[in-house]
Amino acid sequence: MNFVVDSMGGDNAPEVIVEGAIQAIKKLEKDDIITLVGDSERVGSILKEYGYRDHRIMIVHASDVITNDEAPVKAVRRKKDSSIVKGLNLVKDGKGDVFMSAGSTGAVLAGGLLILGRIKGVDRPTLASLYPVIGHEPSLIADAGANAECKPRNLLEFAKMGSIYMEKVLGRENPTVGLINNGTEEGKGTSLTKEAYELLEKSELNFVGNIETRELQNAVADVIITDGFTGNAVIKLTEGLGLMVLREIKKMYLDSPRTKVGALFVQDKLRNLKHQFDYKEYGGAPILGVKGAVLKMHGSSDAVAVRQTILKSRKYVEEDVVGIITEAIR
Amino acid sequence: MNFVVDSMGGDNAPEVIVEGAIQAIKKLEKDDIITLVGDSERVGSILKEYGYRDHRIMIVHASDVITNDEAPVKAVRRKKDSSIVKGLNLVKDGKGDVFMSAGSTGAVLAGGLLILGRIKGVDRPTLASLYPVIGHEPSLIADAGANAECKPRNLLEFAKMGSIYMEKVLGRENPTVGLINNGTEEGKGTSLTKEAYELLEKSELNFVGNIETRELQNAVADVIITDGFTGNAVIKLTEGLGLMVLREIKKMYLDSPRTKVGALFVQDKLRNLKHQFDYKEYGGAPILGVKGAVLKMHGSSDAVAVRQTILKSRKYVEEDVVGIITEAIR
Predict the structure, then answer these.
(1) Per-residue pLDDT tens for B228-276?
(2) Are B8 and B130 part of one and the same domain?
(3) Is the residue at A190 inside a domain?
(4) Nearest-CA neighbor of A98 among A35, A181, A51?
């Protein structure tokens, strides 16, 4: 397999991207390769720094970078030599198997649509994000922010594509699907959620009904369906609250010699809690509904996150998620 | 002042409601009274149990109760002798100054609309909820769930009414107003948030722009504006995550004799963190935009929550929030 990685995207690029690739290649199979797309001089010098000289990490030069501040569609159309456009073209041309980037979410989405194209019958591709559930396996939230405004049929599509991803990539058999709503009873919600409920109810999916966000930490469904505005709010709020809790716990323990002693008794457990909250472990967020395997990594990804995304993307390709979605949506 | 309290609403009614009233009356002024609306026999027997015999807690008998399962508007129309309908009528007739209930949110909202009526010029009254910000004073979220679908002008109204409440009741001078959106830059969002942004920008309010939910714990704005679907999702997710964190920390400490010892070093601080997360301390959520002071208490309120809501409702009345909103919206 050829894992194509945007080496210029994210807060800590290209350093952590290259470092993550070096970590990943050691765990990949003998005939796997990683293609780093980006400024070949900078990427090359980092590889050199790490003393890496194997041929299994290749560089494809891209002279341009799309930043977070640029209008995505315009940037993808104009910056033909950007790492995102070049990386996606490698997948489109069959030279790469999966593309991943920690760069501009908008640009990765726009690139997926414009370069790879939508799968036939899919109205709106979705960004699906793994969501930490403490003490359980993660859920998958779709849409996680790609489509702020949705129609009911979009939510049904997200549910179909998300279920396939959960089953094939995360091995969740016959995954349950829940719809975020402002009450659990049928008939609750906005016109969007009411109509989506009916579509999901009639579908062949394992639909378990409405769920309130209060229940998200109780592992109520494998696949959590919502519009991208709400999905974005849920994911970012979870991140913000997670950071706040960790900050408060740290503050609590650093308060005095006495509390510092207290910390020693539970530090392993605290580390474990932090670990579970950490998006980095889960690998990137797939963009489902485009004609190719694409993953968006968190902008603040470190080398471990990059490594995990590369390693966990194997099943996305090997299980032919894109092909199965194509069949299912037809 | 006469504080009118629905003694039949909430998970633990009427016991905790009566208990909360007894706690509150001790801290109120000499000429204040509390009117408990509900089953006079049950309420009377609880008062007796507590040995309460002062005349400053009065009972107004209501033979009926509106439950959470009933269709709110229909229930308010039909159950003339319910505690919610009777309590609101006391305020409408000028016999009570403020009404509060831990019962059905929908019924309190519908009752506010049907019995007290909308303030002239207000399109949609809003349920505004105080939102815990750890280490800071709380923010106010409007709408907290009364209006799942909103027009841009509704969000502007919520902002105006919420700002007045924050200034008059919580003493927050020239309160800042933020709009929940899926990005901080102007021009981000759905058609609703884009148009609401423009209205807020042009208003005389202290508008600080878009805010992402990731920032809610950083005290970015005093008044947080959003549609009721998103507001509901944010508040319930915060509750769910708060409960999860407390559960995990408890589990962590109960794990072994060693960790139990660790807990002793920080238990005061943990209690303080829990306390800050606790909605109970903040008093109820005002329904702004109706012709009278109305507060919705959390369904799981205990006696402390009831007491706090009664005590904190004084300013809502004394500062004439309803009158000021009436002037401001005109």
Answers:
(1) 999 999 999 999 998 888 888 888 778 888 878 877 777 787 777 777 7
(2) no
(3) yes
(4) A35
